[in-house]
């Protein structure tokens, strides 16, 4: 198993690479030119744009306007499987494109850039994880969607944050002991909520790990009526002060349902686009990444999600670059736990 320092070093290198390849700021006329070109290419290439909540507002807007999908990773997987387009362009990070390819081997899967990865994926190398699992042969292996195809292929179940609690409750009711990977904070939240016997891989998200309870409580002094919305990839101290804890889709629903007019949001600020649609007139504030121990490596925005831009969407559609390929045998093995996820969420 890689040491924490080795994993941190890998993440820092990838972060630096991501920052070097962020899309450039564009003026309104140039933005409209790109959007018009993408609309044309989507029709010409029989393609559909599928975007995650954490991508840029312009990309989410374009996906909505062209009949695509803006959602969390679970609904992205569902949508891509049932949409008739022969090409999917997945705006997000690499594991999302791999998932789309595994579920739709007959379709061409393009990404704005294959360099957009995830700290959870980087921090859970397949060989080290497989060796870790081998130590506990009597455990059910449950992995978060934020993992490589190779890690999924080693798993019994794949889950997203929206169904993690229900899946683990289901397994615990059967007396199953569980290996959980890769996010230790989400794993600890699930363990506390379900009482399941779980062994946790030591991984974390660079965005969510930066949120600090002290900073949020300080901000609450300024906005005492604000509700705190927290994604469970955040540290336990942050989860403990939340008014609502949940997946991206669940947090958007909470913003609509709760009576508060102001929200402090502890997840990637890309989610504000859909929150503002769901709850127009309400105010959304980024949860602070300040406080004891914070480094603000992410400042509430994933550097790899930010690598998705209108310009590289055009390049992918025009030239077929950054296409996702998954080894057929690996895809066959990864499909089983992914299909379990989809079947379970539909039941």
Q: Which secondary structure elements does this structure contain, and how are they paired or packed?
A:
Blueprint: H1 4-20, H2 28-44, E1 47-52, H3 57-65, E2 69-71, H4 73-82, E3 87-91, H5 94-103, E4 108-110, H6 119-122, H7 126-134, E5 139-144, H8 149-153, E6 157-159, H9 164-173, E7 177-181, H10 184-194, E8 198-200, H11 213-222, E9 227-230, H12 236-239, E10 244-245, H13 248-257, E11 262-266, H14 272-278, E12 283-286, H15 310-319, H16 328-346
Parallel strand pairs: 1-2, 1-3, 3-4, 5-6, 5-7, 7-8, 9-10, 9-11, 11-12
Task: Please sum up the structure shown.
With 347 residues, the protein is of the alpha/beta class. It is built from 16 helices and 12 strands.
Description:
The chain has 347 residues and is of the alpha/beta class. It is 47% helix and 14% strand. It is built from 16 helices and 12 strands. The chain has helices at 4-20, 28-44, 57-65, 73-82, 94-103, 119-122, 126-134, 149-153, 164-173, 184-194, 213-222, 236-239, 248-257, 272-278, 310-319, 328-346, and strands spanning 47-52, 69-71, 87-91, 108-110, 139-144, 157-159, 177-181, 198-200, 227-230, 244-245, 262-266, 283-286. The strands form 3 sheets. The protein has a 4-stranded parallel beta sheet, sandwiched between helices. Strands 6-5-7-8 form a 4-stranded parallel beta sheet. A 4-stranded parallel beta sheet has the order 10-9-11-12, with helices on both faces. The protein is globular. Mean pLDDT is 92; it is low at 291-295.
